[in-house]
Amino acid sequence: MKRSWSFYNSGSGFFAHNTGSGTLHSNNAVGEQYNATGPQYNHFNYYESPFSRTDQERERLEREKNDCLRSLSFNAIHIRRDKIPPAHPSTCEWIRETAKFRQWRDRTDLSRHNAVLWIKGHPGTGKSTLMKHIWSYCQRELQARTTAAYFFHARGDLLEKTPLGMIRSLVCQLLMEEESTYQHFLPLFRRKKQLHIKLEWGEAELQEFLLSEMQTYQGKPLVLLVDALDECSELQVQDVVDFLELLSITYIRHGLNVSICLSSRHYPNM
């Protein structure tokens, strides 16, 4: 059955689219000889390798970064995205030709949409397939930007279907891709590790990091993709939408380049 597609403004400033350690030592092999009335002795010159401390510090920092990323990641972090089959050739390419998508991608007319594109449609109409197509397009064609994506999964584990899982995943991806972002996050990780035997992240503190500490962001332009918002509770959907819109507005206010794309079923009051 042929589907009709249209764009409309959601009223919230979004574009909406409807779809149907030790020290190393070495010695001088010859040494210096001292002549005395007694026997001769070799004096060995010990020195620290100029590479030892650097190598050990590098290894320590790498372990610390891996520990930090593991504290944010979880087993099924990308399982939903990976299970979505790719679109048939040419079936989703039309989205890139629409005026709304181009304005979102190119960040033109920001006063109308705050760099947020919201794709809406009934269940089973291919929104997730379209979102994976957009994600693949960003990875392939927008390599000058950093893309982080999250695909909610209602039938998955707790973190797969809650905003906490989303925010942990997005932050983890950004830390992996942007070293400057990781350096901003590192003091927070170190303080938390010192204070807590079991390191667990809360949704609010990760939101605060994205809103405040990343106002000095120095990395590549950002693209954030969030699919299937309706697979968490309706109250949580509103919270996620409010946060992402605030995030976009905050970034724009500080001159940062971010574009956000969401997908969900229709919500009459949003």
Automatic annotation (TrEMBL):
| Superkingdom of source | Eukaryota
Keywords carried by this UniProt record: Repeat
Keyword Mitochondrion tagged: no
> Which residue spans traverse the membrane?
none
UniProt protein name:
Nephrocystin 3-like N-terminal domain-containing protein
Q: Where is the Nephrocystin 3-like N-terminal domain?
A: 91-265
Database matches in InterPro entries: NPHP3-like_N, P-loop_NTPase
